[in-house]
Amino acid sequence: MAYPGKWLKVNGTTIPGLKEYKLTYAKLWKNAERNMNGDVSANLIGIFPKIELLFRDGLTEDEIAGISNLLNIAYFTAEFYNPKVKGASSAQYYASDFSVEVLERQRGLFKGFNVNLVPVSRDTSTGALPPDQPTVTYDDGEKESF
Question: How confident is the model over 104-130, as pLDDT tens digits?
């Protein structure tokens, strides 16, 4: 069954003009090294779900203003579709730099652009995972199964 909700909201507002939505489960490690046999030893700090957005061409002045006002604050709450839980997740994010470029000056249209939403904290959502998956212990003692 397809997800019936909105794919992305920032501070409760649906983001208009999305062409592509990509969720990357970025792993952050510390003390990572390999021994002479090629085996890795590392501590997983966490998995940080980065949201990569691509906006369509032809965004209006009002759409650009709305998107810019939402993304140009230090931190915001993003509610996004998370396939891991087959539904919505919510977390604190900040936006990477992005450029806005005019497409048609007379009609007030703008070119599409991309921006990344970067999580402030690691993912704490839980999904329905098989019980035989390995367990990771984080630096703060929390355990998570994968």
Answer: 999 999 999 999 999 999 988 765 433
- DSSP helix/strand/coil, 40: strand
The rounded distance, in Å, linking the Cα atoms of 122 and 138 is 11
Q: With the CA atoms of 55, 92, 49 and 12 taken in that order, what torsion angle do they form, in degrees rounded to the nearest 10? A: -50
Other Cβ atoms less than 10 A from the Cβ of 140: the count is 7
CA-to-CA dists, residue 26 to 47, 49, 51, 60, 131, angstroms: 5, 6, 10, 32, 23
Q: What is the pLDDT of residues 35-66, one digit of tens each?
A: 888 888 888 889 999 999 999 999 999 999 99
Buried b (16+ CB within 10 A) or exposed e, 42-79: eebebbbbebebebeeebeeebbebbeebbeeeebebb
Look at 18-22, 29-33, 103-107 and tell me which has the smallest mean pLDDT. 29-33
What Cα–Cα distance (Å) separates residue 113 from each residue in 93, 127, 130, 134? 19, 32, 38, 39
Q: Which domains does the chain have, with CATH numbers?
A: 8-124 (2.40.30)
